[in-house]
Task: structure prediction
Amino acid sequence: MPDTTSAAQHTGATPLLQTVGLTKRYGSFLANDKIDLDIRPQEIHALLGENGAGKSTLVKTIYGLIQPSEGEIRWQGRTIVLSGPSDARAHGIGMVFQHFSLFDNLTVAENVALGLDGKEPFKDMSARLEQVSRTYGLPLDPKREVWQLSVGERQRIEIVRALMQNPQFLILDEPTAVLTPQEADQLFIVLNRLKAEGRAILYISHKLDEVKRLCDTATILRGGRKVETCNPRAETAASLARMMVGGEIMEVKAAASRQITVPRLLVNDLSLTPDDPHGIRLEHISFELRGGEILGIAGVAGNGQDELFAALSGERLAKDPGTIVIDGHAAGHLSITRRRKLGAAFIPEERLGHGTAPRMRLSENALLTGHAIGNMVLHGFVNTAATLKTVDRTTETFDVRKAKRDPEAASLSGGNLQKFIVGREILRDPVVLIVNQPTWGVDAGAAAVIRQALLDLAAGGAAVLVTSQDLDELAEITDRIAVMFHGRLSAPVPTAEASRETLGLLMGGSSIEAPETPHATRA
Amino acid sequence: MGLIEAIILSVLAASTPLLLAATGELVTERSGVLNLGVEGMMIVGAACGFGGAWLSGSIIVGALCGMVAGILMSLIFALMALGLAVNQVATGLALTILGIGLSGLIGAGFVGERITPAPHLHIPGLSDIPLAGRILFGEDGFVYLSIALVVGVWWFLYRTRAGLILRACGDNHVSAHALGYPVLRIRLYAVMFGGACAGLAGAYLPLAYTPFFIPGMTAGRGWIALALTVFASWRPARLVVGAYLFGAVTILQLHAQGAGIGIPSQFMSSLPYLATIIVLVLLSRARTGGSTAPAALGTVFVPDR
Result:
């Protein structure tokens, strides 16, 4: 077992881990092109880049999951070949995955055991798990099954699992994407402690403020190549973003004056029991959304946002028609199509499989949501010319880049497909737009286009409801923000008055209960 | 031999092939692979098992032939579904069709032949105890083997690290791969185990149940084993309940029909299916939470290397 104190002696001169000319080729596509990276002990090293810049490929190669086409990895100065993650772990390389590599139907202890080499008896391992989790302030109950745990707890399992191998080098792939600001602060304390113990950390993120706060060095990738290695504290968020994108990002501008008009969407005391046994129950949700206004719903994923979207879009029907009022019409009992006819449009979080049918062409996907109104269907027959025209208009207005005129939805990149979906709905001139995670996993350029489109739509008089986990995004485009926690919605507050701290506390569940449960006094 | 004793003995004999085949399928499905070819592997196991026993004169050789045949069949499935990542449902159905045809070809030369069926255990003293003696100590070897197999599978799945890894592959193959486990190799072993069990279950029929081979003699037992796996929520203990219940109602309704009860025979024949489904549905309703099916069941996995 490597001694953690010995690592500290290496400080300065020899890098702990080096990649030299690391290249990964998939056919003619270069996912990584001659990447040189030096990571020293006691260093938190940021890896920055847009989606598709090659960050994931690089760290998977360092963790032994992907074999490099060319180049080498050096560990403490010596060249090593990693035939799999167990080799990497044996050297002292640990990894915390972005999409958790957890098993929902297994217990915490079993999940951790699967990440270790298995030489230790299960009971000893469980005991050590409790000890490690207590030492680092990451409390966990080894006997619980993962599906019962919150996202933050799940991430703790990943971190504890990595720490139990006593790694000298830890890779974290976008660890704060799913955390509240307070949970993220907790994580930074742990990371700084690991650094003080002499370990090195490779930290992938695209939250630039976080990187400036936490990291000593930053390496920026673009299009599979290394652009720059710099000190993030000496840079501004804007200069880092420029290096990531390779140019200026369009600035999102709100219209000078927006007319707040009549209520377009009313939700009155909406409660709904989920179909899915793991789902969240919606509890007494009420809010009012007026024309010209953008309301943001913040919250950690899995607190009822998906259930609220399903209720508002009509994927799940409410018992009482009056709980949802769209543009003056009681709509709680209406189907999706009938809600669309009232002027509502919906953009779900999942692009492939929910927002579009992946193997169908764009024109067919345009028809799927556009058939209710307009001229796409004539006397029961599909008007192919009209569906293609919608694709062309969307492509033109929202700069959707694609290989041919009418490709399959699945062949588009995430950002371009999202632009297509947003465009498809906005070009129908909705009076109410409900959008869930508009820029999730989308590159910065496309994100700016989409946010601008939402602002422009509101400026045109529509009411927009945006659910997002990205507080920066909500701060940028919304007028008011509410927070969702355990199926309850806090009272919306003007965005200008909402501090990150207050929102973070609400996202963690404090103080939301008191004003929102009138019948609590009865109990 | 009393009537009750005879009924219980025939119940055990009717249940054993179901239990063997379903145990194998349970392990396969727990690794995340849905092999619908159980019926096909069973019928080929029956033909080869009978052939082996008839040519060699040994029941054990026959049983081994059945298992090997089942494994070879499962390897065809593995090549398609794991190696070439073909849709598992289609591959499994094709395997059954192939098996039914193949077994007719293999068994053509044996139809009409007879062998001495598998001997029953006899422990002087113990086996002579009235009622319980014959039932507990006078079965053929397959019955004991099937029970040992279920217990062994339970122990393997819940008490060993290899079993934990197998369940992990069935729950989330992407995670298992990310942690460095060879998902496809683990699934290959699980599919082969399922094939061996199905082959043995098939061989049981001509080696112990009836001492001759006829084409199509599995008569849908492979499908029942598949259904049992699902209704048992992929748990070995419930599998035992389901298999014996099915066997029991099958035999009881035969006796009831024989006794001339005035209920249409079609209804009586459907009773085993109804009873098994109702009991196992009730059992699975009482679950504590979490999903029961292996989450990755039936999904194709292609590692990204």
